[in-house]
Specification:
The structure holds two protein chains of two kinds.
Chain A: H1 7-39, H2 47-54, H3 61-94, H4 107-128, H5 141-166, H6 170-193, H7 197-208, H8 216-235, H9 237-243, H10 247-252, H11 257-279, H12 285-297, H13 301-325, H14 334-351
Helix pairs in contact in A: 1-3, 1-13, 2-3, 3-8, 3-11, 3-12, 3-13, 4-5, 4-6, 4-7, 4-11, 5-6, 5-11, 8-11, 12-13, 12-14, 13-14
Chain B: E1 2-9, E2 18-25, E3 30-34, H1 41-48, E4 56-61, E5 64-65, H2 71-77, E6 78-81, H3 92-98, H4 110-122, H5 138-151, E7 156-160, H6 168-184, E8 188-192, H7 196-202, E9 205-210, E10 213-218, H8 225-232, E11 235-241, E12 244-250, H9 252-257
Parallel strand pairs in B: 3-8, 3-9, 6-7, 7-8
Antiparallel strand pairs in B: 1-2, 1-4, 4-5, 9-10, 11-12
Helix pairs in contact in B: 3-5, 4-5
Classes of the chains: A mainly alpha, B alpha/beta.
Chain lengths: ~350, ~260
């Protein structure tokens, strides 16, 4: 028998509409920042031209800049920022740790090790055969990406396997992550110690993070990984809501906490490894994005996940734009800029009391 | 409805907490699990809900071994409220909706909202249904998690010390609602509780757990001066006030001193 609408649910729906409006607002801001980032650079492109290119009706010299340089770069920033944001959000949730991000499971150090291996060990072979000036261009970027991906994944696999020895509690995972990350970074340091200056410089440059030199097919691969992760996370959003109320409570609500945790970590690690293998190490975005939006949408993962993604995209777009225009025409390393801009922002959140553990 | 036979459970590398515990209870009752700290009351509750898996014995729900049921099936039949409920940045309404998790397919339907509304009305949470649960007082939070458990529409309600850290008013309020639920909804409530007088007032079945096993099990008559002394190690007197029995603990040290 149909009942009259009850006030409780109505009031709740109004409240939820507020969160949806926040998400829509964030989407608009991201779009605006995206267009701004395409306009600004060592030479500025007027808004009309940018929109013209976006809607496929423009000609002239500037369209080449926009189409071939600015658009892929800004699109990369959106995909990478979105990916790091949602991964950080989910990792902080399943590990019950406000400091978790993709780096926690060793993705960063593992990828750095893989890249260093490719540049120093594999790249060495190709360089010795090239006597006409040993430049970095002889190293195939896809080899570096592949090695970085393998490094990131193997580091994560070892961490998860180690933590399963006794139990897969969040604490053991984080501790195993710290230990393994240090091991991998030690291995990278030793490799660098025996390498020549040019290769060391190449490794260091790779770890800076770089959103340029990304092709559309790379963006598609990263986009697919991020999209798959987003869909997986979205289907698990009620599981994450249950897990934040405590492990036993979540089990009582029918959630297989161990499976959800391990699967979420695996999906996060793969997506993060794909991202990092293309763009290098980009700090802080995954850590800070969830905290930035949590005060507006709470910890309801249905809204926290997309909001963290959009906040991550905004942060990275802004950081990259700043990196390009601050001392133009020199482009600053974006990984350093995210940390430089992120640290004060993070401190501000901490001292405003905005950090919530769950 | 729930039957446990010769349950044995030990935490990894430790001496067994539960050595031989058996019980059998039907719907409509409120069973109090009584005993000292570390007697294994909470552990037993977690074995029923398969948060722990016992090493010996079998627990059945409607003649089905709980270990043969999936987590989802268990959650559709049993609701569990843990002792220290974790708080989160979810609203009261979100938290109550979480009780619909085991019934959810892809998302929430109108039926889920109706059931959440009923649970909220039953525990009188309407006034703060949009507040975040990490801002609530202990008494409010306890009612919220009870509402979440009700939204699960369980047949068995497992409560681990629901009145711990509540003030006098809220202790009675929560236990009154719990005993009312057991009777009106024909649920089986199994509650771990330390306050014998609260147990005597609101529960109709009692189990004294001592040294990992069932010491005494039955109606309120099992609570005697002797059994209380044996299980808790305190000297108590049981008075009858009107139709009610009240436990008064005597302070032996003071007696000896005076």
């Amino acid at each position: 028998m149909p009942r009259p609408p009850i006030q409780g649910a109505e009031q709740y729906r109004t409240f939820i509409r507020g969160k949806k409006r926040f998400l829509a607002g964030l989407l608009l801001i991201t779009a605006a920042v995206f267009i701004l980032s395409v306009m600004l650079g060592s030479s500025n492109v007027p808004l009309g031209k940018v929109l013209g290119v976006l809607f496929g009706r423009a000609e002239g010299k500037e369209t080449v800049i926009v189409r071939n340089l600015r658009l892929p770069r800004s699109a990369t920033a959106v995909v990478v920022g979105l990916g790091l944001g949602i991964i950080g959000c989910v990792m902080q949730g399943v590990l019950h740790n406000p400091l978790a991000s993709s780096g926690t499971v060793g993705v960063s150090q593992g990828a750095a090790f893989g890249a260093a291996f490719a540049i120093i060990v594999l790249g060495g072979g190709s360089m010795s055969s090239n006597t006409a000036g040993a430049t970095l261009s002889v190293i195939d970027p896809s080899v570096v990406s592949t090695c970085a991906f393998v490094g990131a994944i193997s580091c994560t696999v070892v961490i998860v396997a180690l933590s399963r020895f006794r139990s897969s509690s969040p604490g053991t995972l984080i501790l195993a992550g710290v230990a393994l990350s240090n091991l991998f970074s030690a291995a990278t340091t030793i490799m660098q110690y025996f390498a020549d200056d040019v290769k060391v410089a190449a490794v260091v440059y790779w770890t800076f993070g770089n959103l340029g030199s990304i092709f559309w097919k790379d963006i598609l691969i990263m986009g697919a990984a991020v999209l798959l992760a987003l869909v997986f996370f979205w289907f698990n959003s009620w599981n994450y809501n249950a897990i934040q109320s405590g492990e036993d409570t979540a089990k009582g609500l029918g959630v297989n906490t161990k499976r959800v945790t391990i699967a979420s970590m695996a999906v996060s690690a793969v997506a993060a490894a794909v991202i990092v293998s293309f763009v290098g190490i980009i700090n802080f975005v995954g850590l800070i994005a969830p905290h930035l939006v949590r005060r507006f949408v709470g910890s309801d993962y249905r809204y926290l996940i997309p909001a963290s993604g959009l906040a991550g995209a905004c942060l990275l777009l802004l950081s990259d734009t700043f990196a390009r225009i601050a001392v133009a025409p020199i482009v600053l390393p974006v990984g350093a800029i995210t940390s430089a801009l992120g640290a004060p922002l993070f401190l501000w959140i901490v001292f405003k009391g905005g950090i919530r553990r769950k | 409805m729930i039957r446990a036979e010769h349950i044995r459970f030990a935490y990894r590398g430790m001496e067994a907490v539960l050595k031989d515990l058996s019980m059998s209870e039907t719907a409509g009752h409120c069973l109090a699990l009584l005993g000292n700290n570390g007697a294994g009351k909470s552990t037993f509750l977690k074995c029923i809900n398969r948060i722990h898996s016992q090493q010996g014995g079998v627990i059945t729900l409607e003649e089905k071994d709980v270990r043969s049921l999936s987590r989802g099936e268990l959650a559709r039949n049993m609701a569990y409220v843990e002792q220290h409920t974790g708080t989160s940045r979810l609203t009261v309404y979100d938290t109550v909706l979480l009780g619909r998790k085991p019934h959810m397919k892809l998302g929430l339907g109108p039926e889920d909202y109706r059931i959440a509304d009923e649970a909220i009305a039953r525990l009188h949470l309407e006034d703060f249904q949009l507040r975040y649960v990490d801002e609530l007082s202990g008494g409010e939070l306890q009612k919220v998690v009870l509402a979440r458990a009700l939204a699960q529409q369980p047949r068995v309600l497992l409560l681990d010390e629901p009145t711990a850290s509540l003030d006098l008013y809220n202790q009675h309020e929560v236990m009154r609602i719990v005993s009312e639920i057991a009777r009106e909804d024909n649920l089986l409530v199994i509650v771990v509780i330390h306050d014998l007088n609260l147990a005597l007032q609101y529960c109709d079945r009692f189990m004294l757990i001592h040294r990992g096993g069932t010491y005494l099990y039955g109606d309120s008559a099992i609570l005697t001066e002797d059994s209380i002394r044996e299980v808790y190690g305190v000297k108590a007197a049981i008075l009858t006030v009107g139709s009610r029995r009240v436990v008064i603990v005597e302070n032996e040290q003071m007696e000896q001193g005076g």
